[in-house]
Amino acid sequence: MKVKQFLVKLLRFVLLAIFLFATIFPFYWLVLTSFKSRQEINSPEIHFWPAEPTVQNYITAFKQTRFDVFIGNSAYVTIISSLLVLIIAILGGYALSRYQFRFKNLIMGIFLVSQMVPLVIAIIPMFILYSKVGLIDNLLSLIISYTVSNVPFCMITMSSFFKRIPVSLEEAAQIDGCNRFQSVLRVVLPVMLPGIVAVFVFAFTGCWNELFYSIMMINSENLRTIPAGLMNFVQKYDIDWGQMTAAATVTLIPVTVMFFLVQKHIVAGLTAGAVKE
Amino acid sequence: MKAKKKRNWRKWEPYLLLAPGLLLIVLLMGYPLLYSVRLSFLNYNLLTPNDIHFNGLENYQKLFSNPDLWLIVKNSIIWVVVVVFFQFLLGFTLAMLLNSQFRGKGLYQSVAFLPWAVSGFLIGLTFKWLFSQHNGVINFALQSLGLIDAPVSWLGSETFSMIVPIVGMIWYGVPFFGIMILAALQSIPVDVIESAKIDGASATQTFFKVMIPYVRPTITVTLLLRVIWVFNSPDIIYITTAGGPANTSNILPLYVFNQAYYSMDFGYGAAAGILMMEVLLIYAMLYLKLTSYEKAGDF
């Protein structure tokens, strides 16, 4: 029996180690490459530690492209879109969880189905619509489309967060003299903070990472977001992996930091609707 | 009198609260989709902007007579099935491993779930570099182990072109499955498992007869939704192989994008989009039916 327990433990340890290695290695390799010199990257010999660590790739990545501008554009589009998504999701999520009304199932169905509709399917009609109203090559087009695509999932998730908060909490606040709006704002929303954070981060990563609309709707170099801007590196026949990985590493930083800070909330948020209680 | 007025007002509250979201979805998702139905019956090419006219089923005829269409449909199926299968298998294993206490678990969990936050774009790029033919580390490792004699052109060969995007996509999705299944496993009340043990169930029996049935609703919903997301996410393919060589790694959503972006034949591209929409619609109906969403928790 003891031997068996030991073997189970050993197996678990080995498997955990393999998972950890498989998760970390791609990140490690990305960051490692960014600190290698051009010669070292192109040599057939593979080093698992840079022979002469250099930050040259970072310098050229920022000098040769408008990488700082891409970051600014991405931040601008992402922050505005995610805030819009958040507000819309809170309003709608509250309605879906707290009220009984006609067409509720129909409306819920619309959101359930629309979370499955990918942005790319509407890319042609949206391109035509945006060009009719002069929004091609305008970051507003991305803000609109990113907001639309993230609303359904975020609203459904938000409504399941509201459902977890007992109605009695609101009622108590109302007895104490708050009106309905005040009771939500001052009592319910603070309790929901984890859910709000999760939804925000979900929308944030979705917008920060979107590629196809950014390529399609934006033409000017100085309006590109990070993924579309970096496409210039990738599509060349001879990719400069040093610059590329340096730029990629910089891009990773905000998402990674945010992820670590709010990881627990994200997990709670993602699983909120899925697990029956 | 005042109370009655207030009551009337309350009736409209949910609609007002839902209005912004609903309007956005109807106007900027519903309407474009309907518009693309119309486009799919038009000769609408950006290269000949003055010659836009109704051309009946011509776009669809062109689409269905494209010899590569079936390859692309086949690839889409392979992509979804293989990716979701391995994401699930590995995600389940990860969740089982994490469903116990050990030192440093919190940190381990944070790191293990990190891929979820990375963009398809960066994943595509990273895996393209890992699998690079001449100075990629994977070829180096395989050669050092003696598994291959010469560097393999993972991205440039018609036989292997699906492998790199699939591996990248699996890597990306394992944490997500892990999170969902772990949450489901942890929602099993301890006394349920305890009483199974007291009744003399072995570990295997407890696993298959108690734990699995308990987490099945979550798993079903997650799996079904994941199928859609994987189908809809061609970023990694776009970055690694761009669907090539010769469409051997192309899937439907990427094909639609390429029509829109490169060939500028909007009528034809819209027809391809409609085909994709139909595939999704059939699947969505199946999904709603299989989960009967109100009962399974409204994800």
List the helices and strands and how they pair.
The complex is a heterodimer of chains A (277) and B (299).
Chain A (H helix, E strand, L loop, with lengths): L1 H33 L3 H5 L13 H9 L2 H32 L5 H11 L8 H10 L6 H26 L2 H9 L4 H12 L1 H17 L2 H6 L8 H10 L5 H32 L5
Helix pairs in contact in A: 1-13, 3-13, 4-7, 4-10, 5-7, 7-10, 8-9, 10-13, 12-13
Chain B lengths: L1 H38 L2 E2 L9 E2 L3 H7 L4 H30 L6 H8 L7 H11 L6 H8 L18 H24 L3 H9 L4 H29 L3 H6 L11 H12 L2 H26 L8
Antiparallel strand pairs in B: 1-2
Helix pairs in contact in B: 1-12, 2-12, 3-7, 3-9, 5-7, 7-9, 8-9, 9-12, 11-12
Task: Tell me what you see in this structure.
The complex is a heterodimer of chains A (277) and B (299). By secondary structure, chain A is mostly helical. Chain A has a single domain (65-272), classed as MetI-like (MetI-like fold). Chain A is built from 13 helices and no strands. In chain A, α4 (67-98) packs across α10 and α5 (104-114) packs across α7. The longest helix of chain A is centred in the first third of the chain and has 33 residues, at 2-34. By secondary structure, chain B is mostly helical. Chain B has a domain at 71-264: Orthogonal Bundle (MetI-like fold). Chain B is built from twelve helices and two strands; from the N terminus they run αββααααααααααα. Chain B has helices at 2-39, 58-64, 69-98, 105-112, 120-130, 137-144, 163-186, 190-198, 203-231, 235-240, 252-263, 266-291, and strands spanning 42-43, 53-54. Chain B is flat and about 75 Å long. The chains are: A mainly alpha (277), B mainly alpha (299). The interface between A and B is large, with 93 and 96 residues.
